[in-house]
Amino acid sequence: MSAPFPTRRLRRLRKNEKMRNLVQEVTFSVNDLICPVFVQENLKSRTFVESMPDIQRLPLSDVTQEVQSIKDLGIPAIMLFGIPEKKDEYGTGAFADDGIVQKAASEIRKSFGDSMVIMSDVCLCQYTSSGHCGILNGNIIDNDSSLMTLSRIALSQAASGVDIVSPSAMMDGQVKAIRNALDEKGFSDVGIMSHSAKHRSSFYNPFRDAADCAPQFGDRKTYQVPFTNPREAMREIEMDVSEGVDIVMVKPALSYLDLIAKTRERFNVPVSAYSVSGEYALVKGAAKQGWINEDEIMAEILYSIKRAGADMIVTYFAKKMAEYLNR
């Protein structure tokens, strides 16, 4: 007499934790995490970012202590963002030899040697009086003059000890311009992780609070990718790959998992994803209200980004996720 139900039961592989671990398909480790670090020029003490609970702007004097805490969790990489004391129309603080990111990178390299991968944001929005990511010609972002400035920023950061520069301005040709500048000045071993498909997104709003970089007029629709155009996003990534990028990035992450998956399928380069400030703030806000379990939601989101195809994730949950994984 035949059994009333099929004998194949997928629940057999879920019956206990050891069995579930044995057949787990997507894995996550602290080696997949990149931790953002905000450093503010002439800041006297740490200040919390109101719209991003637990995230702080650091004075230069606290940077090595913060990086040590990140290193102690096993996280292999940081991404530096600088907030200057003064801004101007040309964003000169971004490429100054004594700029805040340059000072921070130099201190970190001196203290940690090669035991921490130092990445740095290459953009102008924090440094320009306009709050835009490029140099203005009237009220228009001048792509080509912006390329020259972005190259100067990358060179100054490379000279301070950065391992990977990360252009996020979304200027056409930025990878090629920066690669040529780095190679010509002897920094051929400095990598480029481009914010290749950086979308025009409201998920960035808390970051603008953290980095003091909201545009003073207009918006960034003329240079960031519309969230309605997945084929255009793929063309942006294809352009960066053709220009010699080392790592591509899709940004934001959670609402763009389809694009992360397409990028993984189409391009044979490392893929990063940036789980941005709005994604972080939504989870923190809901957790504060008691509506969700923060750790469980955090892990589910970050695993989903890995499942989509990201090799590494820039996330404000980096330290908390490392603690979760280490437990």
Automatic annotation (TrEMBL):
**Which annotated residues bind Zn(2+)?**
123, 125, 133
Pathway(s) where this gene product acts: Porphyrin-containing compound metabolism; protoporphyrin-IX biosynthesis; coproporphyrinogen-III from 5-aminolevulinate: step 1/4
Query: Quick one: a GO biological-process term for this protein?
Result: protoporphyrinogen IX biosynthetic process
Binding residues for 5-aminolevulinate 1, per the UniProt record? Answer: 208, 220
On subunit structure and binding partners, the annotation says: Homooctamer.
Its GO CC terms are: cytosol
State its Enzyme Commission number(s).
Answer: 4.2.1.24
SMART domains from the xrefs?
ALAD
Q: Which residues are listed for Mg(2+) binding in this entry?
A: 236
What gene is it encoded by? hemB
Q: Which amino acids does the record list as binding 5-aminolevulinate 2?
A: 277, 316
Q: What is this protein called?
A: Delta-aminolevulinic acid dehydratase
Any one Gene Ontology molecular-function term assigned to this protein's record? porphobilinogen synthase activity
Q: Which residues form the active site?
A: 198, 251
Q: Which reaction does it catalyse?
A: 2 5-aminolevulinate = porphobilinogen + 2 H2O + H(+)
Q: What is stated as this protein's family in its record? A: Belongs to the ALAD family.
- CDD domains named among the record's database cross-references: ALAD_PBGS
Q: Name one Pfam family in it.
A: ALAD
List keywords of the entry alphabetically.
Answer: Heme biosynthesis, Lyase, Magnesium, Metal-binding, Porphyrin biosynthesis, Zinc
Q: What class of enzyme is it?
A: lyase
